[in-house]
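Lab notebook, bench 4. The sequencing result for the construct came back, and we need a structural model before the next group meeting so we can plan mutations. Quick request posted to the team channel:

Model the 3D structure of this chain.
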Amino acid sequence: MMKKYILDLTVKSNTRLHERYVLLKLTAEEELPAMVPGQFAELKVENSPTTFLRRPISINYVDREKNEVWFLIQTIGDGTRALAGLKAGDTLNVVMPLGNGFTMPSGDTEKVLLVGGGVGTAPLLYMGKMMAEAGCRPHFLLGARSVGDLLETDMFRELGEVYLTTEDGTAGERGFVTQHSVWERERFDRIATCGPKPMMMAVARYAKSRGISCEVSLENTMACGVGACLCCVENTTEGHVCVCKDGPVFNINKLLWQI
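Done. Here's the predicted structure in token form:
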């Protein structure tokens, strides 16, 4: 179990990547704590009278040289809109790192596919970075509604092989990630995925049918981040567990999905 920290981080930059997405880069005077791909943070929302709880956000990237942690924020409600309004120099209170991350490849010979849909691509960037640093070239399959919704693709391409799908055909192959031709062309030893539940269930079905090890990052409502509030309970082969504490990453064999 990794130690958790409550930190006042300083906003280094806030970049709007799309009308619905911003990228927050945060830093601290002290060295940031150790974090693994797939973990998340609970971000405190200030100056929003309708927002009482922290917002769980995936760790998008960690730049050790600059002592930065990045969060990709999708503006959905008042809380995330308030976070998206932060400016350079502002202070953001963060609890991190929370949860358990993805299993890293056992060696450079393992062929790993990282599948992301929408904002679910966020934790895969950090995983790809850690894989590349370990000498294992990642393969990314990223999907979105349209070309404008594909985020950080240049950084993904710097790390490994990138395959794209868009629902309207404006980038990559037309359709959903589960319809990409790479599934028929390539054979993978391991799959990790994050995104909408129907997408992850389809990926899990594919993996299970071919005996491929597969992990999914669940996005249940996680209010507290420490397993106290029971908002994010998921039924598994080991009984009811809190996704925020026992996940958010699970091997599909532990989930009771109908796959």
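DSSP finds six helices and 16 strands in the chain.
Will bring this to the meeting.
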